[in-house]
User: Which sequence fits this backbone?
């Protein structure tokens, strides 16, 4: 797992590493082999209490008093340290999540970029003056909310920490981070780099542990002022209910069933890499994965053939082999995905990639599959599979394309492939999604671009300046001076 320079069995609270309150640990698994390669802390409600208390103290102390420029400076330094330790962080993430090394390296670059972006944004977060009745001066202040909770999943720990903790710190909050029990190493590494960069004590606290224990304790904690959650719909609904008891606002990012719409006037050559990569990146375990490829019927065979050629060349293997795909995160995730694959007949598999012969037996590998046949109402077309599975869906015209695209409970990302400017503009408005891409997909992750969903994809926006607004509380000051 590369160079791990900290003790993985500890929690990070009030600027110090220590054993969790209960002294218990959980297994640290390697998805590429299925083997246990270490232990991590099993944080408890008591650790979350201590972390929230430390964060409150930070708000009342040095961190709460830091100027916006000082906050920016420390974030910039964290970003530089992330870049200096890029190799170690990438190896850790690749081992822990099972993602190919080049993807893990791209995640390190994104984390550093989030730090850079939010470092620069910290002192540009402004209120406004509002014209009001004669004799008044009215202005708004964007104030930190206080202690923010961050529950992070296992698929992109570094990227999600970057967008959520980065924005919260820039806005002046103190954070309690609960990484996923399946993959928490880079969250711990990040905390240590923040300490090294001089982030004041208590401004960032990290408590690994089980969702039902540390996670539930954080979601229902009366001491937090905001909760940011990325993960499944069921857990998102549960954390929102827990936070609601304390009237704590929640940002939910819950994945999707994101479509790409390919029209007869699309540039297929340009589209092809995006069509496939958006489905198999991170072995399909991506909230914004494009699992539905909608194609105008006159081109469905052409698109299916072109995608099939790519699929047949895809190889899944150990993270460190750095192939197209790694394993899935866990045996449980593999069961979920193979369960879905069982819903399709052999005739419906257009093409599949392969798991390399020397992939360890115990690793959680699934060969990527391209399917066609199940209709838009089929479970394969409706439910988030969270594995390397894409479904081709033909449509007759624009009207039907929009109906299919918008016909799931989700709405995270969508893309339109077409040369017609009018169609691009029409569909950008009609597609039900938090982000719509025209003749591309994902814009390379776009740290600057507000991101989030509608419907069961969640609510609230992360990334860009929108995240800063979400992590601040707006105060209106109205002074009557005559
Ligand atoms: P999950 O939503 O249960 O876990 C995500 C995070 O929430 C983890 O840190 C976990 O410890 C925590 N958590 C779990 N139960 C909790 C609770 N009761 N209170 C507070 N926190 C809790 O997701 P999962 O079980 O790891 O994966 C299941 C499915 O979720 C996947 O198959 C996939 O469909 C979806 N998922 C989506 C994303 C995404 O990026 N949107 C990420 C991971 C998983």
Assistant:
């Amino acid at each position: 797992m590369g160079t791990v320079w900290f003790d993985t069995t500890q929690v990070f609270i009030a600027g110090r590493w220590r054993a969790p309150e209960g002294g218990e640990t959980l297994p640290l698994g390697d998805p590429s082999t299925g083997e246990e390669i270490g232990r991590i802390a099993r944080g408890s409600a008591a650790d979350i209490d201590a972390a929230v208390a430390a964060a409150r103290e930070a708000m009342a102390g040095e961190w709460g008093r830091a100027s916006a420029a000082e906050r920016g400076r420390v974030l910039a330094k964290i970003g530089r340290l992330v870049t200096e330790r890029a190799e170690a962080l990438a190896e850790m993430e690749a081992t822990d999540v099972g993602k190919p090394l080049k993807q893990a390296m791209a995640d390190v670059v994104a984390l550093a970029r989030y730090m850079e972006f939010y470092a620069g944004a910290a002192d540009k977060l402004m209120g406004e003056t509002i014209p009001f009745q004669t004799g008044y001066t009215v202005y708004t202040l964007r104030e930190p909310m206080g202690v923010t909770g961050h529950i992070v999943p296992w698929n992109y720990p570094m990227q999600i920490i970057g967008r959520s903790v980065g924005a919260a710190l820039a806005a002046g909050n103190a954070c309690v981070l609960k990484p996923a029990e399946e993959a928490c190493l880079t969250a711990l590494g990040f905390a240590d780099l923040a300490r090294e960069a001089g982030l004041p004590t208590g401004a960032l606290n990290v408590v690994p542990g089980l969702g039902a224990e540390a996670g539930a304790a954080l979601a229902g904690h009366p001491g937090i002022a905001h909760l940011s959650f990325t993960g499944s719909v069921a857990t998102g609904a549960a954390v929102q209910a827990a936070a609601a008891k304390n009237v704590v606002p929640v940002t939910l990012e819950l994945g999707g069933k994101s479509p790409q719409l390919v029209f007869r006037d699309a540039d297929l050559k340009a589209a092809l890499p995006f069509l496939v990569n958006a489905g198999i990146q991170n072995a399909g375990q991506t909230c914004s994965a494009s699992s539905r490829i909608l194609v105008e019927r006159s081109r469905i065979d052409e698109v299916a053939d072109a995608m099939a050629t790519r699929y047949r060349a895809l190889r899944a293997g150990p993270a460190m082999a750095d192939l197209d795909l790694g394993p899935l995160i866990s045996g449980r995730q593999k069961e979920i995905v193979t369960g879905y694959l069982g819903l399709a007949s052999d005739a419906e598999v257009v093409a599949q990639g392969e798991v390399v012969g020397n992939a360890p037996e115990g690793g959680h590998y699934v060969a990527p599959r391209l399917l066609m046949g199940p209709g838009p109402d089929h479970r394969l077309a409706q439910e988030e599979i969270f594995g390397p599975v894409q479904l081709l869906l033909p449509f007759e015209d624009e009207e039907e394309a929009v109906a299919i695209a918008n016909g799931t409970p989700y709405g995270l990302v969508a893309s339109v492939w077409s040369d017609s400017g009018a169609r691009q503009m029409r569909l950008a408005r009609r597609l039900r999604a938090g982000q719509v891409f025209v003749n591309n997909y994902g814009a390379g992750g776009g740290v600057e671009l507000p991101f989030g969903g509608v419907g069961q994809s969640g609510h609230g926006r992360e990334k860009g300046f929108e995240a800063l607004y979400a992590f601040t509380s707006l105060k209106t000051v109205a002074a009557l001076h005559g």
